[in-house]
């Protein structure tokens, strides 16, 4: 009760800084035990901060009226979480498929007067994976289990068990993880600096939330996005991503995308939507009809389809088996129709960037760049010759659905406070107060660099620009020699372009997923290959260790 009273008083800001520091420690910790304690601290502290934030909200009315039922419900949830954590502990490779399966699903929940679409299934997977990681790091490798699909014992690099040591960004090469052995393998510099920049970003975001006009939203961003996504990054980065595990995850992702596209087809045919009342109202007043499937925004749905199509196109370019080519081509045709029905121009642009990046990595870069220049020139000429065709006769703001006003308003906010900005998550509040938009609903920035400039000023841009460059270079390095790495790099570049035209960069779990898997592949490319260990060899090794430590006469 004392701790809760403190958190509900003047200390939430200190609590947010503590959560950011723990998330940064998870990314940068050089030893598995220190990393495990940082994970545990984040998992324990974040629920207290969240409860303190929403304690008086109507959504917790049931908890106030029936505390015993709430405690029982929490107990059931913890038991379910423990079951999933145990499954991941026994089979660490399960974390990958479970994560990609949970990525697209959001649940609308009202928090502190606002309705947020929260990634509840992903939170469960991340929390379970973190608990398994903590147990293995602190208790040791007491349960058999491997990392590869269908393989009882993998080649190490399990959740919390870094065979080969030094697999994480910022880890010293000579330090071994829990149950791991020391190695002289050096880490790619990009992986190290990527971890450092992400950790610095988390700390800066927390510090700049102290003077934000919307601290509550900044706190929710940290608790709902940055902390769990930092855990996700580390969990995925410490897995051994062999081709079989990558294939399983890609098949799951493609199957989900086909199902989502089919839902979009039904929506278009019946002219009804499953979610988002605002989009339903907008469709009723327009001559066109946009679909959003299980997503709350057509642009987010389009982004998901564009990224999946980029990954599948990499399979077409690097896998010449006829059966695979035919299957992937059919899936791509289905997803293309779904993408067109979203009418998301930003998603189409992201797909073009992803395909161009794949072509440049698969063949030579200069023909792709030349073709891109031709497309840009042709597009500019078409806009100049026939602006009415593209809606520019209505003005740039109307043609961009109001996003031009958001950009200009954000630039004016940056000019007013160029050094340190208005604080984390403050764009909506400050934009409404300064610009007085006719439609107050359209106040969230749709261009990530402008958002950062307005909220965090030059200080934020100093971190954002190197972060983007280091992430891109890390994923691109060595991508020409690996179809898997080329796919991850191209998808990241497509996502980065989409954030320039829409929103959600580090607020999107897909960003952290691509960075985590891409970092793991970069480390694996630098690590010397280790021989596989059979289940019997591992059992014999444990038996010999027990006999060596057994007291005299114990076997009689």
List the helices and strands and how they pair.
Blueprint: H1 2-7, H2 12-28, H3 32-54, H4 61-65, H5 67-90, H6 95-102, E1 107-111, E2 114-118, H7 120-139, H8 189-208, H9 215-237, H10 243-270, H11 277-285, H12 298-318, H13 322-342, H14 345-362, H15 365-385, H16 396-399, H17 403-416, H18 427-435, H19 448-476, H20 483-501, H21 509-526, H22 535-549
Summarize the model shown.
The chain is built from 22 helices and 2 strands.
Structural commentary:
The structure is a single chain. This protein is an all-alpha fold and 556 residues long. Among the domains are: 2-236, no CATH class; 241-394, no CATH class. The chain has helices at 2-7, 12-28, 32-54, 61-65, 67-90, 95-102, 120-139, 189-208, 215-237, 243-270, 277-285, 298-318, 322-342, 345-362, 365-385, 396-399, 403-416, 427-435, 448-476, 483-501, 509-526, 535-549, and strands at residues 107-111, 114-118. The protein has a two-stranded antiparallel ribbon with strand order 1-2. Residues 142-185 have low confidence and may be disordered.
